[in-house]
Amino acid sequence: MDDRRDDTDRRDRDTGPERRMGDRRDSHRLPIDVEIKIGNEDYSKHQGNVGIGGVFFVKPLDLPTGAIVQLRFVLPEMEKQIEAKAEVVEITSVGLPSAVGTRVRFSDLDIRSELLLARYLDSHQGA
After folding, report:
1. Residues 35-49: pLDDT tens digits?
2. Residue 21 included in any domain
3. Nearest Cα to 56, choosing from 100, 98, 104, 108?
4. Of 3, 78, 99, 102, which residue has the fewest beta carbons closer than 10 angstroms?
5. How many CB atoms lie within 10 A of CB 68?
6. DSSP label at 107?
7. How far apart are alpha carbons 70 and 72 in whole angstroms?
8. How many other CB atoms are found less than 10 A from the CB of residue 72?
9. 11: in domain
């Protein structure tokens, strides 16, 4: 009996067209108003699409990739405020070249908030 692993390199596996084209969403996204605090500035409100891993802001934020921001938002219908730090991971074009947005990834979303967010997203699946 041969106990050696098969020689297939898992890194070479096809991960699907979504991964190859930069779509790294872990869940569907829903529109939401998000307040952003940058450094010592006051919070400012922006429209975004929230998913379990972060937020895509439908307008560009004047931030560099790698910047850390503080986010807070209220989940509609649940009336629960969520606060988390996030990192700017990408400024991206969407559709027309003039339409750009900013993607941020949660960096310290606590488990309670993650579960609330997952429940909210699940309750609106296919909406």
Report:
1. 999 989 999 999 999
2. no
3. 104
4. 3
5. 14
6. S
7. 7
8. 13
9. no
Q: What is the pTM of this model?
A: 0.73
CATH of the domain at 112: 2.40.10.220
Segments forming the whole domain that contains residue 82: 29-123
In a domain, 106, yes or no: yes
Q: Which residues contact 4 (CB under 8 A, 6 or more apart)?
A: none
Strand-strand pairing, 44-50 and 54-57: antiparallel
First to last CA, the chain: 52
**90-37-44 Cα angle (round to 5):** 95
The SS3 call for residue 84 is strand
The tens digit of pLDDT for each residue in 77-117 reads 888 899 999 999 988 765 655 457 899 999 999 999 999 99
**Pair of tokens at residue 40:** 């010592």
49: left (phi over 0), alpha (psi -120 to 50) or beta: beta
